[in-house]
Automatic annotation (TrEMBL):
Main location: cytoplasm
Residue ranges of the region described as Disordered: 1-22
Extent of Basic and acidic residues compositional bias: 1-15
Species of the source: Streptomyces boetiae
Keywords, in A-Z order: ATP-binding, Cytoplasm, Magnesium, Metal-binding, Nucleotide-binding, tRNA processing
Gene name per UniProt: tsaE
Identification of the protein by name: tRNA threonylcarbamoyladenosine biosynthesis protein TsaE
Record's function text: Required for the formation of a threonylcarbamoyl group on adenosine at position 37 (t(6)A37) in tRNAs that read codons beginning with adenine. Is involved in the transfer of the threonylcarbamoyl moiety of threonylcarbamoyl-AMP (TC-AMP) to the N6 group of A37, together with TsaD and TsaB. TsaE seems to play an indirect role in the t(6)A biosynthesis pathway, possibly in regulating the core enzymatic function of TsaD.
Length: 191
């Protein structure tokens, strides 16, 4: 995996007009096992009330990353793509938050469909992960993580069959100074 870069050069206006910073880390993930490990590492940063948006083409690794999140959060049930059921709730096996996994791919994009899922009700006590959520659920939380996964990373680690370029961006005050660059530790394959 390439050396991560962390930057905080973007700003945007939050829901209440306040300027919020963005912190981002860019990684090269060499394979599915390491994508899952990235999910486990990312889970350590998450708590109830966190919204995670996953963006990437079909087969990019969004569900694989979410499997790792589920493992890291220690939730019940196999994390699989909820494409045909739209949303799945995975209760915590311990004292952590449940994982609500949503796949918005089949939704028409209408706000009414997203509102029917009651994500605003689930969010305060859960970690909500939305595949294909960009442009659909940002208004649910001023603070959120946006994970973009791209195939064909330019910096291909030796022995990598299908690397991905992953950008994890923390939006809002919650993610300022969160140390997202630590996500890269132990995600690279052993030498």
């Amino acid at each position: 995996m390439s050396r991560p870069t962390e930057h905080t050069e973007h700003t945007e206006r939050g829901a209440h007009g306040a300027t919020t910073g963005e912190a981002a880390v860019e990684l090269t993930v060499p394979d599915a096992d390491r994508m899952r490990e990235l999910g486990r590492r990312l889970a350590a940063f998450l708590r109830a009330g966190d919204l995670v948006l996953l963006t990437g083409e079909l087969g990019a690794g969004k569900t694989t990353l979410t499997r790792g999140l589920g493992e890291g959060l220690k939730v019940r049930g196999a994390v699989t793509s909820p494409t045909f059921v739209i949303a799945r709730v995975h209760p915590s096996l311990g004292s952590g938050p449940p994982l609500v996994h949503v796949d918005a791919y089949r939704l028409g994009g209408g706000l009414e469909e997203m509102e029917d899922l009651d994500l605003d009700v689930a969010l305060p006590e859960s970690v909500v992960v939305v595949e294909w959520g960009e442009g659909r659920v940002e208004e649910l939380a001023e603070d959120r993580l946006h994970v973009v996964i791209r195939r064909g990373a330019g910096d291909t680690p030796e022995g990598s069959a299908d690397p991905r370029s992953v950008t994890v961006t923390g939006v809002g005050p919650r993610w300022r100074g969160a140390g997202l660059a630590a996500l890269a530790e132990d995600v690279a394959p052993p030498s």
